[in-house]
Automatic annotation (TrEMBL):
Species, as recorded: Sphingobium xenophagum
GO MF term set: hippurate hydrolase activity
PANTHER family: METALLOPEPTIDASE, PUTATIVE (AFU_ORTHOLOGUE AFUA_6G09600)-RELATED, PEPTIDASE M20 FAMILY MEMBER
The protein's Enzyme Commission number: 3.5.1.32
SUPFAM superfamilies: Bacterial exopeptidase dimerisation domain, Zn-dependent exopeptidases
Keywords for this protein: Hydrolase
Domain Peptidase M20 dimerisation stretches: 182-274
Gene3D superfamilies associated with the record: 3.30.70.360, Zn peptidases
UniProt cross-references to CDD domains, sorted A to Z: M20_Acy1-like (cd05666)
Name of the protein: Hippurate hydrolase
Catalytic class of the enzyme: hydrolase
Length: 381
């Protein structure tokens, strides 16, 4: 591969500028504008406003009808940064704590390199996606006709992975990231004086019993050979010491890889809520939302990714999927492809994603660029 050394320093500066000016999902107006400006400077065909704030750059070369999509997410998180870096976020409560600033820089670097070398025959579509962090930006782009407007034989998404050492690239056939569901159960009684509990259905008591039963779903209703996580993350109820509250809310998340397991867990939550309501004389209402499906790699595309990765770094098959979720799943439901982890840990480890002290490791920018380029050049050889 032709050297990319001259691209790195400007891309680091670009990445750090994006880091200093983070934007939340569907509000990435400055970020999208900077990306579109860079793509136009390269002479690419540029499309804006796809999936509300998404950007697509199209690079064609040769006569082949083959095509590939390469995706980078570009939104930040609602977290207060605590890195004290000179390029730390200038927007209070908003922070690139997942490395999407690095993903943008790597994909721009790939666009720059492929534009000047053109060692491929076909079309490369560069997808800069908004709102990955829980808002379904990929779904928005797909629903707006992403793959009808920009057809792809394959689509690949790359994410930095602090659990892997820098230089290592991993993926796997089949599930690689979990489906993400969220639930809220509202327990409603009448409310009353805490000194006269016999006259008041106790929503607090109901919530306590419910938490115990919900936490037993995985161990008692799901086969030991299946993989699933259920976590209670919020309980809200009451406002003073001598009042039994009229309402308590219990919320949490479910992570799965198998739709049948997902169905079983949702049904169990509803059954338990109904039973707890009857037993405690309260009304139990369940709001269960499946907001991200499991990210499932096409087997051939995963192998294609591993073959490309082996030409630029240490390629390994990921032994297990992760229970964290990724809305690239929506793109994989619409087009064959694979999701790939790029190791970025330094020394004996790396700061985890979504941590207020996290920062993208600029040392892996070059490897990320080379991987994007290898995917395109191999598929469009």
């Amino acid at each position: 591969m032709t050297d990319i050394a001259d691209l790195i320093e400007p891309l680091i500066a670009f990445r750090r500028d994006i880091h200093a000016h983070p934007e939340l999902g569907f509000a990435e107006h400055r970020t999208a504008g900077c990306i579109a400006e860079q793509l136009r400077a390269l002479g690419l065909e540029v499309h804006e406003g796809i999936g509300r704030t998404g950007v697509v750059g199209v690079l064609r070369n040769g006569t082949s009808g083959r095509s590939i999509g390469l995706r980078a997410d570009m939104d930040a998180l609602p977290i207060q940064e605590q890195t004290n870096l000179p390029y730390a976020s200038t927007t209070p409560g908003t922070f690139h704590g997942c490395g999407h600033d690095g993903h943008v820089a790597m994909l721009l670097g790939a666009a720059q390199h492929l534009t000047r070398t053109r060692h491929f025959d076909g079309t490369v579509n560069f997808f800069f996606q908004p709102a990955e962090e829980g808002q379904g930006g990929a779904r928005e782009m797909v629903n707006e006709g992403l793959f009808e407007r920009f057809p792809c034989d394959r689509v690949f998404g790359l994410h930095n992975w602090p659990d892997l050492p820098a230089g290592t690239i991993a993926t796997r056939p089949g599930p690689i990231m979990g489906a993400a569901d969220k639930f809220e159960i509202i327990l409603e009684g009448r409310g009353g004086h805490a000194a006269i509990p016999q006259d008041t259905p106790d929503a607090i008591q109901a919530a306590a019993a419910m938490v115990q039963q919900l936490n037993a779903i995985i161990s008692r209703r799901i086969a030991a050979t299946a993989s699933a996580v259920l976590s209670i993350t919020q309980i809200h109820g009451g406002h003073t010491h001598n009042v039994i509250p009229a309402e308590v809310r219990v919320s949490g998340t479910v992570r799965t890889f198998d739709p049948a397991v997902q169905d079983r867990i949702e049904a169990s939550i509803r059954e338990i809520a109904a039973g707890i309501g009857i037993a405690n004389g309260v009304t139990a209402t369940v709001d269960y939302q499946r907001y991200y499906p499991a990210t499932i790699n096409d087997a051939e595309a995963a192998q294609e990714a591993l073959d490309a990765a082996a030409t630029v770094g240490n390629a390994v098959i990921a032994p297990d999927p992760a229970f964290t979720s990724e809305d690239f799943a929506f793109m994989l439901q619409a087009c064959q492809g694979a999701y790939i982890w790029l190791g970025q840990a330094k020394g004996d480890g790396g700061t985890p994603l979504h941590n207020p002290h996290y920062d993208f490791n600029d040392d892996v920018l070059a490897l990320g660029i080379r991987l994007h380029v290898a995917l395109a050049e191999r598929h469009l050889a």
